Amino acid sequence: MPLVVQAKNLTKIYRMGSVDVHALDGVDVTIEEGASLAIMGPSGSGKSTLMNLIGCLDRPTSGTLILAGKDISKLKDKQLAKMRGEMIGFVFQTFNLIPRVSALANVMLPMSFVKTIPKRKRKTRAMEILERVGLGQRVKHMPSELSGGERQRVAVARALINDPKLIFADEPTGNLDSKTGKSILELFKGLNDEGRTIITVTHDSSVASYSERMIYMVDGKIEKQVAEVATRGAA
């Protein structure tokens, strides 16, 4: 399979007063198209920093990062934002939905930034995606009228709306009970089985067990990699 991510010697240094904090310290990682990867590690290990760099939310201090064949260090801010909008979808622990608009409007929003889908087709596409994640009857509901699991499904639909190559799930079950969390992880597993590249950032081994591959980070470095999780989704 072709590589969708190639990172070589990635570093990210933050200046904290008079001290340099090495959030990432020489990280190498490759991710194949259609892969399912979990990035694990304790708080402060660098896993979220790595997600932010691969997700085009931030730039590395040094090193090489190539996404879908493009060296992002050579892109201007507008080009980087365009690439992020077209290529990457995000699902966060806190859902990040706009509270005053409906589920349908939340899902439609990313299409207005990328503008690859004609206006006349946007509503139909959003309805289809919401149906796909099991919310066909809840499209007019506000986030406050939805359960935690339903809100996360809206977030998944929003992440899918621009047909991204990469989907990041940052602690996607952190605010859900175990049964609802499992249903969300099964949804991601189904998307991966269809060929979507899924990168899950988590500290929870049971969440990581839904991925085919795992990297474990400590102090800004990759401490170990597991090429294949033994029993996917069993934990």
Q: How does this model look, in words?
A:
With 235 residues, this protein is α/β, with parallel strands linked by helices. It has one domain: Rossmann fold. The chain is built from seven helices and ten strands. The protein has helices at residues 47-54, 77-87, 103-114, 119-132, 148-160, 178-193, 205-208; strands at residues 3-16, 19-32, 36-40, 62-67, 70-71, 88-92, 166-170, 197-202, 213-218, 221-226. A six-stranded mixed beta sheet has the order 6-7-8-3-9-10, with helices on both faces. Strands 2-1-4-5 form a four-stranded antiparallel beta sheet. A hairpin with a 2-residue loop joins strand 4 and strand 5 (70-71). Helix 3 (103-114) crosses helix 4. The longest helix is centred in the last third of the chain and has 16 residues, at 178-193.
What do the pLDDT scores average to?
92
CATH class: Alpha Beta
Spell out the helices and strands N to C: EEEHEEHEHHHEHEHEE
| CATH topological fold name | Rossmann fold
From the spread of the alpha carbons, the general shape counts as globular
Q: From the alpha-carbon coordinates, what is the Rg to the nearest angstrom? A: 18 Å
Q: pLDDT under 50 segments (min length 5)? A: none
Q: What is the domain tally?
A: 1
End-to-end separation = 28 Å
Task: Kindly report the spatial arrangement of strands forming the biggest sheet.
Answer: 6-7-8-3-9-10
Helix run count: 7
User: Biggest β-sheet: count, sense, barrel?
Assistant: 6 strands, mixed
